[in-house]
């Protein structure tokens, strides 16, 4: 990307595209019912960020309990949701920043800083949830934190990595804008 500059049409939108993928992963984590699931048969426990569902046997009906009745459940949901909303704001700002013909590199560095703040909030929610869930909710059988919880961690890792990219990109401003004269290493025979 640095070699061709951000005016190169295929490279210009890579960072906003990656932010968009992070937003999609965040939506999957927020809406997914697979934060915690039973690992072995009979499947008797399933939980999301919002509720915990159990059933007495393999063919019985699921009974769900809202996690919003617990203070830690509200804290985990609120912190992860704040991190997700900051990610959506960064996505919108990145689209605006890269749509302008002349890039404002300080603006891009601000997006990187905001991504780090979003990562802190997301990680707080992702740490509160399993610690308090495993101590407060009675679990039967063997359970595992599953696919939706993994999407939450993927979103947090993407926020950190993209934060580094957005913060470090202004260091290569001259190379990106093409203001550096190429150096040729040529030795005559």
Notes on the structure:
This protein has about 190 residues and is an alpha+beta fold. It is built from 5 helices and 5 strands. The protein has helices spanning about 15-30, 70-100, 105-135, 145-170, 175; strands at about 35-40, 45, 50-55, 65, 145. Strands 4-3-2-1-5 form a 5-stranded antiparallel β-sheet. A hairpin with a 3-residue loop joins strand 2 and strand 3 (about 50-55). The chain is elongated.
Task: Give a quick summary of the entry.
This protein is α+β, with helices and mostly antiparallel strands. The chain has helices spanning 14-31, 71-99, 105-136, 147-168, 173-177; strands at residues 36-38, 45-47, 51-54, 63-66, 143-145. The protein has a domain at 8-34 and 71-141 and 148-177.
């Amino acid at each position: 990307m640095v070699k061709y500059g951000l005016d190169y049409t295929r490279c210009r939108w890579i960072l906003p595209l990656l932010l968009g993928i992070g937003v999609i992963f965040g939506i999957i984590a927020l809406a997914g019912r697979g934060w915690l699931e039973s690992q072995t048969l009979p499947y008797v426990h399933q939980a999301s960020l919002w509720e915990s569902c159990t059933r007495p046997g393999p063919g019985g009906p699921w009974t769900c309990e809202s996690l919003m009745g617990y203070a830690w459940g509200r804290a985990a949901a609120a912190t992860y949701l704040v991190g997700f909303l900051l990610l959506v704001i960064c996505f919108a700002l990145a689209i605006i920043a890269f749509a302008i013909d002349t890039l404002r590199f300080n603006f891009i560095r601000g997006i990187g800083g905001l991504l780090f703040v979003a990562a802190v909030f997301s990680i707080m929610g992702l740490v509160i949830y399993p610690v308090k869930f495993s101590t407060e909710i009675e679990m039967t059988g063997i359970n595992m934190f599953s696919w939706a919880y993994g999407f939450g961690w993927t979103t947090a890792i993407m926020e950190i990595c993209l934060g580094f990219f957005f913060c470090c990109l202004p260091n290569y401003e001259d190379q990106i804008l093409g203001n550096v004269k190429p150096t040729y290493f040529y030795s005559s025979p």
